[in-house]
Specification:
alpha+beta, Aminopeptidase, eight-stranded mixed β-sheet, 4 helices, 26% helix, binds coenzyme A
Length: 162
Amino acid sequence: MIESLPERPTAGTPVIRRLTPADAPAIVAIENETFTLPWHPNVFLTMLAKREALCLGYLLEGRLIGYLIADMFVDVWHIMNLAVGAGRRRRHVASDLLARYFEITERESHRGHTLEVRVSNASAIELYRSYGFVATGVRRGYYSDNREDALIMWKESDGDSA
Ligand SMILES: CC(C)(COP(=O)(O)OP(=O)(O)OC[C@H]1O[C@@H](n2cnc3c(N)ncnc32)[C@H](O)[C@@H]1OP(=O)(O)O)[C@@H](O)C(=O)NCCC(=O)NCCS
């Protein structure tokens, strides 16, 4: 699956496609510069090899600048990781990844979508809210680096097949 998106006011035509193990080094580079608790590279390799998982990358001129990793648990999609390279934010890269994610996941029956996000991560919470996620609870001390709480967010499936 290779999909072109409408051009943004940046050079080159962006592409959103499924990620493969060959993309792991580029993913890990963004991951390590982004998170205080980055995933181990092996976690990405496991997700990239998993049939049920949905791993999408946003590429500009062939270079990975953002990714979204999701997995299905029973009948619920879980967005497990979403990041955009520091110099590429606020250009709707995450929005385009989420839009493509919903387009793909709505094709098959499921109850909805969930995720955890740090309670201090206002930009991500705002992004998810703008896509219809609502806060449904808190996991106390979820993040092991500073014992920060996680906000649990939920979005019902838009489809009528679930
Ligand atoms: C959160 C993150 C993925 C957003 O990526 P992005 O490509 O910059 O987001 P978008 O440009 O698609 O933003 C879409 C909307 O989200 C909200 N948003 C995004 N960044 C924001 C910010 N810094 N402050 C306030 N709102 C913000 C806005 O409503 C924005 O719409 P607008 O630009 O039209 O106002 C990015 O900031 C990131 O990688 N952060 C570090 C990793 C992270 O926190 N991941 C989420 C873990 S759960």
